[in-house]
């Protein structure tokens, strides 16, 4: 006898469908609460981090951690016990030690050699410096000092400068009196080319008394004899070489000059001081 399928009653079907709908609504509700909970925790964590950061607690924790690591390094024998230096003459040992700072006893692994080098290079006499770690316990400083080249006068004050125009230090009136004087506001920033060009010619350098900035455009070389060499705005090095050749060929600087005008390369002229008769003529150099 064949089996006969029993039909589900309409009431049972409705009950099953209602149960499925109920479970779906519960699942969606739980899902929404879960998402909201995760978002809430994220916001709470972000707010907590912001509060800690603004209150300095994060930086404090990092600082404490760094101190602990540094103390561990010191305990392991990696503490700074000596500071050595070479290459300094005008710079004092006190100045060098002050620039490096009170680091003896600290961790050599945590010593900032770049910051120390920058501080050493701020010293007036120091042109360049190198700071290195010599493990396990020594900091070594190597210095290259500036060479004095001229004295810059501004508003009555005198400053020693090197051949690049860098100010070394303020000096008294009778210090470095053998060096030429640089005169004019902003002169150190523009003096490098003319100063180096004149220094390359020993006969000119020996006669140089001052370099005077004219109109913030060009230079005059004041001779010890009182005469002026008027340099052009452009190609000062070429003009200096021309002057050196004239000195070699004619002994120009040995004359009682009022001035030598090199501003026009096509027409070089000079004028001697008036003699007893009052005669003073401008002469062209062929």
Give a description of the structure.
The chain folds into three domains: 15-54; 74-145, Ubiquitin-like (UB roll), CATH 3.10.20; 148-285, Rossmann fold (3-Layer(aba) Sandwich). The strands form two sheets. The chain has a ten-stranded mixed β-sheet with strand order 6-5-4-7-8-9-10-11-12-13. A three-stranded mixed β-sheet has the order 1-3-2. The protein is 40% helix and 26% strand. Helix 6 runs parallel beside helix 8 (236-250). It is an alpha/beta fold.
**How much of the sequence is in beta strands?**
25-35%
Count of DSSP helices?
8
Describe the largest sheet: 10 strands, mixed
N-end to C-end Cα span? 143 Å
| Quaternary state of the chains | single chain
**What integer is the average pLDDT?**
81
CATH C-level of the largest domain = Alpha Beta
Provide a brief overview of the structure:
With 286 residues, the protein is an alpha/beta fold. The chain has helices at residues 10-54, 57-75, 93-100, 113-120, 187-190, 192-199, 202-207, 236-250; strands at residues 82-86, 126-134, 138-145, 148-154, 157-162, 167-171, 181-183, 208-214, 218-223, 228-230, 257-261, 268-272, 282-285.
């Amino acid at each position: 006898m064949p089996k006969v399928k029993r039909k589900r009653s309409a009431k049972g079907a409705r009950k099953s469908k209602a149960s499925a709908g109920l479970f779906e609504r519960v699942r969606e509700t739980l899902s929404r609460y879960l998402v909201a909970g995760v978002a809430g925790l994220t916001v709470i964590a972000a707010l907590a981090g912001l509060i800690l950061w603004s209150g300095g607690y994060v930086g404090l924790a990092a600082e404490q951690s760094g101190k602990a690591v540094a103390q561990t390094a010191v305990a392991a024998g990696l503490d700074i016990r000596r500071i050595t230096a070479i290459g300094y003459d005008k710079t004092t040992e006190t100045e060098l030690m002050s620039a490096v700072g009170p680091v003896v006893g600290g961790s050599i692994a945590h010593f900032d050699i770049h910051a120390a080098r920058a501080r050493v290079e701020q010293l007036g006499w120091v042109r360049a410096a190198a700071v290195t770690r010599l493990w396990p316990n020594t900091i070594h400083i190597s210095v290259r000092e500036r060479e004095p080249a001229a004295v810059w006068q501004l508003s009555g004050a005198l400053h020693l400068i090197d051949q690049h125009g860098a100010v070394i230090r303020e000096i008294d009136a009778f210090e470095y009196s053998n060096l030429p004087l640089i005169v004019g506001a902003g002169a150190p920033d523009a003096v490098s080319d003319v100063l180096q060009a004149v220094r390359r010619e020993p006969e000119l350098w020996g006669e140089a008394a001052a370099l005077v900035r004219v109109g913030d455009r060009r230079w005059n070389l004041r001779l010890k004899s009182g005469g002026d060499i008027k340099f052009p705005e452009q190609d000062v090095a070429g003009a200096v070489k021309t002057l050196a050749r004239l000195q070699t060929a004619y002994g120009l600087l040995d004359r009682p000059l009022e001035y030598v005008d090199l501003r026009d390369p096509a027409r070089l002229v000079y004028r001697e001081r008036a003699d007893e008769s009052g005669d003073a003529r401008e002469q062209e150099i062929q």
